[in-house]
Amino acid sequence: MVVIVGAGPAGLATSACLNLLCIPNVVLEREDCSASLRKKRSYDRLKLHLAKRFCQLPHMPFPSDAPTFMPRNGFIEYLDNYASHFSVDPLYNRVVESASFEEHSGKWLVIAKHMLSNGVEEYVGRFLVVATGENSEGYVPEIMGLDRGRSCILINMRVAKSCGRDVLVVGCGNSGMEIAYDLSNWGARASIVARNPVHVLTKEMVQLGMTLLKYIPVDFVDYIVLMLSKWNHGHLCEYGLRRPTKRPFYLKKETGRSPTIDVRMMGKIKAGQIQVLPSIEKVTGGRFEFQNRKVNQFDVVVFATGYKSPVRKWLKDGTSLFNEDGMPKKRTPDHWKGENGLYCAGFARGGLLGILNDAKNIADDICKVLAEKGD
Ligand SMILES: Cc1cc2nc3c(=O)[nH]c(=O)nc-3n(C[C@H](O)[C@H](O)[C@H](O)COP(=O)(O)OP(=O)(O)OC[C@H]3O[C@@H](n4cnc5c(N)ncnc54)[C@H](O)[C@@H]3O)c2cc1C
Ligand SMILES: NC(=O)C1=CN([C@@H]2O[C@H](COP(=O)(O)OP(=O)(O)OC[C@H]3O[C@@H](n4cnc5c(N)ncnc54)[C@H](OP(=O)(O)O)[C@@H]3O)[C@@H](O)[C@H]2O)C=CC1
Ligand SMILES: O=C(O)C(=O)Cc1c[nH]c2ccccc12
Known about the structure:
GO molecular function: flavin adenine dinucleotide binding; indole-3-pyruvate monooxygenase activity
Number of helices: 10
CATH architecture of the largest domain: 3-Layer(bba) Sandwich
CATH superfamily of the largest domain: FAD/NAD(P)-binding domain
Structural class: alpha/beta
CATH topology of the largest domain: FAD/NAD(P)-binding domain
Number of strands: 19
Shape: globular
GO biological process, one term: auxin biosynthetic process
EC number: 1.14.13.168
Helix content: 25-40%
Keywords: Auxin biosynthesis, FAD, Flavoprotein, NADP, Oxidoreductase
Largest sheet: 5 strands, parallel
Bound molecules: flavin-adenine dinucleotide, NADPH dihydro-nicotinamide-adenine-dinucleotide phosphate, 3-(1H-indol-3-yl)-2-oxopropanoic acid
Enzyme class: oxidoreductase
Strand order of the largest sheet: 8-17-9-10-13
Order of helices and strands: EHEHHEEEEEEEHEEHHHEHEEEEEEHEH
C-alpha cells in the first residue's frame, strides 16, 4: 500500500501513475475537495502563467482547443476530469497529523484526524508520498511595530475589494504583483513593496525560454530573454525596481525563485498608478517608514510574502528527505526520494512540470522496488 498525503495536482498525478501500474494507494486530503489551492485559496482571475504544454499531468494532455494559458476554472475542470479518468478517489476531510516509520514492521504509520467525525484514523503503508505542496501555509513576516489588530491584514490570495482605500501589498512575487494589479483596477490606491531585485518577464518570454531550454544552454536562453525584457520593460530602476545580477532561468534552476510574470502590472507602475516602495523599516502607530525614509499610512496591508511548507510538524521520520524548512534537502532532479520508502511529489520548485516528472519517477521507483522484492 502507498499512502499519499495531499490531493492537489501532485497527489492526484502520483495516484494516477500508481493506478496505471495497479499498485494500491490511498490519498488523504485535509480539505473537502481535491485541488483545494485553486478551488478554495485563489482568486477568480488566476490563470496558469505557463503555456498549457508545460502544465499538464502525466498521461493526459489538455484538450487541443483549450486556451494556451488555462483559466482557473478550466484547470479545475481538467484536474477533476483527470482524477475521474484515472480512478483517483481521495479520502477528504482527513488532516494528517503524524507520520512515522516503524522499524519493526518496515512500514509507515500515518495518523489522520477526520474533520467531520473528529475521529482519529490510522493508515499503514510500505511507502509514503508527501504531496502537501510548496505553498501549503501562508507566510507573514514579523515587522517591527506592526500591530496586527489595527490595520486590516489580508494574507496571500484572500483580498477584499478596497475601492478608494490606500492599500499596501508586501511582496513583489507573482501573487503580490497580481493582487496589486487587481486592487488598482478596483480603484484602490495601491503600493507594493519590492524588498529585493526581481526579474519581470511576460508569459510569452517565459514560454519562449522554456521552449528554448530544450535545445540551448540556460545562459544563452537567459541572454535572449533578458534582452527581450529590457526591450519590452525598459530600465526597471526608473520605477523603483531592480533586476537581480543573476539571470531569470538560472535563478529558477538554482534557487527555485520564479521570475515575476507581468500581467499588465508594469503598465500601471510606469503610469504611476501603483507606487513601488523599498523595504519596510518599521511601523509606528500605523505609520509605515520605508528604507528610503518615506512615511505612509495605509487602510489595508496585504501580505503576499510567500508560503511555508510545515511538513516537519507532522512527518516524524522525514529527515532523510526534508530539511527544517519542509523542503527537500537534495537539489532537483534528485529531490524526490528519501529512505524507507519515503517520497515527495511537488517539491521540485518546478511547478506543474516538476510534478509531472515527480509523479512518474515515484510510481516507477515503487514499481521497481516491489518487483525486486518479488511483491
Ligand atoms: C497561486 C499559484 C499559482 C500557481 N500557478 C502555477 C502555474 O501557472 N504553473 C505552474 O506550473 N505552477 C504554478 N504554481 C505552482 C504549483 O505548480 C501549483 O501550486 C500546484 O498546485 C502545486 O500542486 P501540489 O499538489 O504540489 O500542491 P497543492 O496544490 O498546494 O496541493 C497540496 C494539497 O495537500 C493538502 N494538504 C496539505 N497538508 C495536508 C495534511 N497535513 N493532511 C492532508 N492534506 C494536506 C492541501 O489541502 C492541498 O490540497 C502556482 C502556485 C500558486 C500558489
Ligand atoms: N499562475 C499565476 O498567475 C501565479 C503563480 N504564482 C506562483 O505561486 C508561487 C508563490 O508565489 P508568491 O505567493 O508570489 O510567493 P513568492 O515566494 O514567489 O514571493 C514572495 C515575495 O514576498 C517577498 N517578501 C518576503 N518576505 C518579505 C518581507 N519581510 N518584506 C518584503 N517582502 C517580502 C519576497 O521578496 P524576496 O524576493 O526579497 O524574498 C517575494 O517578492 C510561485 O511559484 C508563483 O510563481 C503566484 C501567483 C499567481
Ligand atoms: O509558478 C511557478 O512558480 C512555477 O514554478 C512555474 C514555473 C516552472 N518553471 C518556471 C520558469 C519560469 C517561471 C515560472 C516557472
